[in-house]
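Worked example (supplementary).
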Amino acid sequence: MQELLTQLITGFGLPAWLSFFLWAVVLYGMVAVVGQVAVVFMVLMERKVLAWLTQRKGPNRVGPWGTLQTVADGVKLLFKESIVGPGQDWFLFTMGPVIFFAPSFVLYALIPFTDRLVGITMPLGLLFVFALSSLSVVGIVLSGWASNNKYSLLGGMRSASQAISYEIPLVLSALGVAVAAGSLDLKTIVEAQNQGPFGLFSWYWLSILPVSFVIFHIASIAEVNRIPFDLPEAESELVSGYNTEYSGMKFAMFFLAEYASLFAMSALVVVLFFGGYYSPVGGLMLERFAGVHDNTLLGLEMVTWTVLKTYFFIFFAMIIRGTLPRLKPDQLMAFSWKFLIPLSLLNVFLVAALKMAWMTDGMLLTAGPFTFNLTYWITYGLTGLMTFIVLVGFGQLFGHKQPPLPGLSAAGP
Amino acid sequence: MSMATEQPTQSLPQGVYLEKDIDAGELTVNIGPQHPSTHGVLRLITTIDGEVVRDIEPVIGYLHRSKEKMAESRSLFQYQPTIDRVEYLSAFFDHYVFVTSLEQIAGLKVPKRMQYVRMITMELNRIASHLLWFGTFLLDLGATSPMFYAFRDREKIFSLFEQLTGARMMYNYYRFGGANADMPEGWLEGALDFCDDFEQRIDEYEAIVTKNPIFLDRTVGVGVVDAETLIAHGVTGPTLRGSGVALDQRKDNPYCCYDEVTFDVPVGQNGDCYDRYLVRMAEMRESLKIIRQAVRQIPGGDTADLMRRRAEGDEAANDIELQIAGQKINLLTYKAPPGEVMTTVESPRGFLGCYLITDGTPKAYRCKWRGASFSNLTVLPLLMKGRLFPDLMAIFGSIDVILPEVDR
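After joint prediction of all chains, the assembly is encoded as:
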């Protein structure tokens, strides 16, 4: 498509470098449209899922089954006055939502929906994803400060500390993926997971990186500020946190960007750990069972798998939101620094050892006709042990202080 | 505590407060009177250092409606419908304590049947109030779903009340010497149905919440307070019982027919938010016990039976104990004899008292309300010193303050 644009530009007698900039605009426009549609759907989905969890019906008045509810809300927000109060830094106050908004939509461009449908292909894609997702925190801190509101300020501060704490385990657990796949390119990572005939079981979440997957998923929920990690906008304490003072479209930008980054993070989980655009039975179903080799059809299947898997994780995040209370900031920090970060560091070493065992021969043990790779099995055992620690330790870490239940005593004369 | 008097002057440039506070290292955050989790219009002037609360000063009076002065300016019967609003989450208790005060002064006898009706309605109301507390407490901790579940069950209680009194929250049902009307036919069965249903529901809630690791983390060891401090502050109700003191008016000073039913008084051990939660959950179960026994023991049984017996000419069915009121009084001309009495009941929040002085006129000479929430709120600054900012909501939620009762 970029070539087409370049031809068009040069055909009009305009300089070729213009097409480079125009392409950026066109690309971002496309990504934004796709992203907006996804967000509009997700907002409705979240409301329906939460309604289902709490025995309600959810939006059901605007359009059939309330499908136009989000559109109506968007239109309402669009027409509302965007108030900038006295004492608020107009420039920073406006830039806050923009800085928060832009990176979360650019993330869409990096997700490989199929092997061809990638907005931006870059060898350091994974690194760029983290660079972008940490950029959005700047927007929160900025708007927290520029709001001239103490709740917003506290929300911004919390957001900064939370981002620092949870991006480390996020990156460290993704480092394991990079080590295992031998690349930072998201497409290569997806392709690397399509090894062997097992499909679902050869993806990284189970085959070699179960600990990474658990840590990454927890940290990604923290990264997108959702319950139980929604401290920056803890509505029972900080009213609405960093976006307390925002109204109209500026507020809508926060709202949209939150869901956009939820989608992007879920898609990233899928790409890194759940085989990206490949089907759960390994390879592509159309190709394997129907013998289809048409690129368009295969591309459609790939998009379907990516989107389905992504929405599974979005759905999971929504169920978590309907189930769990919120953590306190100190518990949030303690959980990251005392549990997730040491564990993810250890995990990186283990994955590296596992990789070494695969790449080199490792310690080979020959017993009769069979040859065992000792390094492989030892690291595999250790990974299994760590998975156990994660799953059991998660409960133990929180549950160990439980006191005895109060005794019921019949009192009175 | 101070009443709301001063407002920040408008002449100061905006933003000055923020910068000045940051330079001092401490930040004064004005929580409320409009805030999602102050449960009404409480204002908390909070001094925080980072996330640590250094000082907290509750400011009350935003919901003051002169309930006590109103008693002196209108007749007792004109005053009665307005006292639902003293504490709107458990209005039956307000009514009971006011009506009982006058009954004691005037020596009016309440039929046994109506006493049982009062007991059943009050216990249902206690469950409704605790349910709202359950929902909002969890909401304060960040869990959104329990609120909806709690409201669903509260709705069932309200529809029962609606059948009985015609109103869902402001009942105005009790009368001096009895009640407004007898129960509708089949109402007791509806109450029993609710008990059966709710018993399963409360198990469900406890399964989700009580052992939730994040919930434990937020509540266990938070807001720990010993019984002596609470007693010194005049704190009563589940908040006191959470610290291990089995002080319950229903046991210690049985009013109504509480001496004719058996129930336990659940007490906590550690005096933290978690124990206060457990006590309230256990109290809902005890209330169910009381309702079941009361429905079984109520003289006359279901209204349909009673009506049938009366139609058949059964003399026993016309007994004074089965009437709606023990003594017919003319509401328009009634003058209570001079007298002075203090009545307390165990409301969902603690001791609810009414100190009533009559002087032989249709009006009350003085009517003083003793709200449990007011005394319970006094302990908040003590509990909050040095705690984290998010603990404020957990602690404030766990002592279950309702602002209309604080301000009256």
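Two points are worth noting when inspecting this output. Residues 399-413 of chain A have pLDDT under 50 and may be disordered. Chain A touches chain B through 51 residues (CB under 8 Å).
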